[in-house]
## 1
Amino acid sequence: MTALRFADSETLADLGTLVARAKSVDPDGAIRLQAHGRTLAAYVGVLPGSGLLAEGAVVGLRTMPLAAESDLDATVSLAAVSDRLARGDGTAGPAALDVPPVTVRAAWAAVAPPRSGWERVGTVAADVVNEAAREGIEEVAQGTPEQAGGHAVAALRQRVWQRSTTTVPPFPAGGAFAAYVLGFTPPGTEVTVFANGRWTRLSTPAGHVLVR
């Protein structure tokens, strides 16, 4: 069984927080665990996008230090990771995660964001980003009748989250939603916006949001 050994229990708890927040948005969602050397990149899907290339997908990313060398790239269910973290009975020790052996498929995980070539576009106050997210959440809630079908709800969410914000610089509103629900935008901080071709990245010290 593959295990990831973290630098300390606090770092493992950070992973647990990321998983819990992502699971609150999509209980059936997935997490991509990509470890090279002593660094783990943990990707979680927030908005799935559409089509084979997951156009419009919004993904959260946190990087975390590991205590031991590792080479891993696995996409597993959030529920499986959450269960293992909750039990805390892994064979690798208290600051380790036994990676679930069963992998899952997620369209957003098949399209990797670029590692280089990002250009800084500007900064936006986290409070402004959070307000944009809350406005979108309210719009989706008010525009979704109790008897609305799944297709109607999905279409409304797509319209709300794929449009650009009114911020300077603007970016897809789904990026604001992801940063807000994943806890990447504490009040009083700033969000740096980057662009790379069709990709947009929102970065804070707490994590990154990638929008295709």
Note: The CA atoms of residues 7 and 67 lie 4 Å apart.
## 2
Amino acid sequence: MTQLTGKVVWITGASSGIGEALAIIASKRGAKLVLSARRADELARVQALCADPAKVALLPLDLTNFSPSEAAAKARIFFGDIDVLVNNAGWSQRSMTMDTDLEVYRRIMELDFFAPVALSKATLPSMIAKGGGHVVMVGSVVSKFGAPLRSGYAAAKHALAGFTEAARAELWRQGIKFTLVCPGFVQTQVSVNALNGTGGSHGIMDATIQKGMLASDCAERIWRAVESNVEETIIGAEAKLVHLKRFFPGLFSYAIKRANITK
């Protein structure tokens, strides 16, 4: 079991949405937190919402342009070695394949795949040295299937899932646990901030996101999975689509081709 009380937890993408909710709940459970995101002012706002702001350190980071080793070294300065790393930062996408610049795919892969891999690799040596640690990868239901307007996002999240499975199989003897969480629709700014085909912001709150699960409920389920050492969990009603694809692939293919994903 991975108990949060007294543990040092590093959360990326902690300035809003799921990351903010994860921070607030972990603080209530007695964790010491290192929070990272690009916006220092928003990190400070989240810090003030935590149960014990004195046990919350802020480490602003742009995960598209950073030194993983330097970031990991700075994170350890606050409270010591990291016990739980939560790779939550990421971009979504809202653009058709043929309308998406190649550079947009590169940007999505940089933040949604290469950044969590780099940060994990920079943090793992200290976890291994002390005999254990837990890496949480925040994927998506599109870690399990592709969907319209998400070709780059689905590709990055598929890659993240593959990396997580392989790393877990390699490092379990060293006491390293990996949890892949795959949320469906959650009430965050993910669609507003999603990249369009030319790299700008989508700027629209999707109705499916607006009607989705509360970020606090999603975060609670993530922490329950981590505390129970669950290796993979799909969060939300969208889990039924994963089961549909597995057991009725033809029906799933028919449905996803005709889905209006943004409504």
Note: Strands lie at 8-12, 32-36, 56-58, 84-87, 133-138, 176-183, 232-235.
## 3
Amino acid sequence: MSSLIALQDDSSPVWLPRLAAHGGPRFLQIADALQAAVSAGSLKPGDRLPPQRRLAALLDVDLTTITRAYDEARRRHLLEGRGARGTYVAAPKVELTSILDLSMNTPPPPEGVDFDDLLKQGLSQVLMRADSELLMTYHLGGGSDSDRKAGARWLEPMFGRLDSGHVVVCPGAQAAIAALILALSEPGDVILAEPTSYPGLRAAATQFGRRIIAVEADRHGMMPEMLEQACRQHQPALVYLNPTLQNPTAITMGEQRRKELAAIAKRCNARIIEDDPYWLLADAPPPPIATLAPDRAYYISTLSKCLTPGLRVAFVLIRDPHERERFLVALRSFALMVAPLTAALATQWILDGSADGLMEGVRKEACLRHRMAGDILAGRYNGAGDGLHVWLDLPGYWSPSQFARAADSEGIAVTPAEAFATGATNSNSSGSVNAIRISLGSIKDRGRLQAGLQRLSHLLARRPESLSAVV
């Protein structure tokens, strides 16, 4: 993200971005810098901007670039023209002062991808090739032949060529997790998981009367010796793992650790739910655990975290036909099917290559945002440079819930570590974690994200007692 240089033009401040060679189109860098300055209060309503020709000369870019930057800034309601008097910072609109939601893991909007056009083209192809009546009626659960073939194609980077009959299509990863719990465990059974893990697991397990026992983890993920001890002590029905860009810690488990855990699962006759929504966003991730223990692991990959949340489609790899049927029976008890139109759109995008293009754009945008977060939150940033979130260690004078409340008072939503606690640990350690998760994708404009991260950085440096007098 470009930094800003303050210059002086008569008596009015002029803000210029220092353009980054690999920061994307220059007109967007300029517009993002303007938005960041407005959001941070460095540029205020009524401030006059330099004429376009002068700004082009100062930045050593062509006039068209500045024109496009100003047009983009006007589209964002940042600037207003006043005829011969020039261009000025506009009065703030609602979107500049609304809450910045950094609490929800969603893919960032990829630069250079016209999502509206992609959606229109995809739906047009679906409606042209499919019977509209079939798109509006009930379907058997598990997906059509075409949907399962698309699922097998989606999973090829992880597993190579697959039998599409081993793939089940589900209405999202949460539904897949819930159905696996119902199909493979009984009320009162134990599910092992890491001390901080995806909250949806805890919600489903609690609803179905299963117990979660936390197994200690280190910087490489769940510890093998602790898993083996917990398996022998509790005879768990399931072990839940999120091994790639783990939610929330952003840890990617190495291949050796995966091999060790797979070996323990085989030795202890344990079954693994491998929830892997971020594998395709990661930089050179190791092979899934399901490739190491294919008869012990059930693999879940969702489109919602790689493409767009509205595409509620997940693919589950279940090789055993009897277990696949049990899974489908469990799934039908609460989610009969994926919405046929949604499934058809997902299939169309996967088979025509649109999904790959969209995902590559998401991946590039996520990397840009991680670099921004690393620059602003230097010293406490815990991220792999990819994925959708950052796990931020807090200074000792902040607790996670306290910091989340303080951030909320600043108009920023983040998620405290307590939201990810899975339950009692399998040891005497307290398991408390002093961190928050920051999601980088839910804010559309990079400039607003930059301003929000800067506000969080300033908040980190302030002790809670310095806020006590603020009302």
Note: The mean pLDDT is 90.
## 4
Amino acid sequence: MTADTANSAEAPKSDYDSPWKEALERFFPEFLALLFPAIHARIDWRVPPEFLDKELQQIGAGSPRGRRYADKLVRVRARDGRRIAVLIHVEVQGDPESDFGERMFVYQTRLRDRYGLEVVSLAVLTDTTASFRPSQFRHRLWGCGIAFRFPMVKLLDYVDPNRWAELEASDNLFALVVMAQIRAKVTDEAETLKGWKFRLIRRMYERGYSETLILQVFRLIDWMIRLPQALEADFRQTLYAYEEQLRMPYVTTVEQAGIEKGVQQGEAKTLLRQLTRKFGPEAAQRHRERIERAELEQLDTWLDRILTADTPETIFH
């Protein structure tokens, strides 16, 4: 049983698709360095990777599709003298699928045919079925045969204490994303999961990551590790207290700004609705831009004035 099934009655549904897509785009070099170091070493990182999402969608139209979390197509430059372009196709698979190897082969052949470039296919398996380990596709009939192999990483293997220690000791920030994914999948008890969530985020502060990096990785971990409402509120309070202790209110400031923005938007909508009811839609439209740009304190003043205003102009003078 996973954390998803154990707490499904209380916890919001975990969203693994969005964080993986964002993680691959934001931290693609780190992703390869951690999980596929031999591939990482062959790439010329002086040339920025190019993500080809639309092209991959076109290639995948009509192909067999299992339940996966994310797939990415990335154009990189090889480090060798040829400096050829290489397409890296990454599949992040969330559940066992009997024809997964065949699907990887289909994408490989379609990409090679479409672009005429070298294609490297990589698979990341995030499921909890230990026996599901596809790394090839083979087919043979009447003397004709196909043998296709692809590098595969099984995140469940990192649950082993020695492998987990590798993640704990790694200075690669993508290790935090991998640990968050693993704990979200294998931890049954919500209170324990809350502890892991705080521990992983605290590590970023301890390592002295920049505010930008902390907020980016926090977003990914927060997406992956979803807690029941009461525990999530408790986690937030613990995190805010920790930030206050360090005098680094990164998450606190961002979330408070989000709350204030939500209140501001709510009051602006209320004022526009009251203006429409009292003076008609044309008056509301005439003052809409001014209202939507106004600060919260100014909106409070206008909301008080509209109660006794005889004309729209008396509200905004």
Note: The chain has a mean pLDDT of 85.
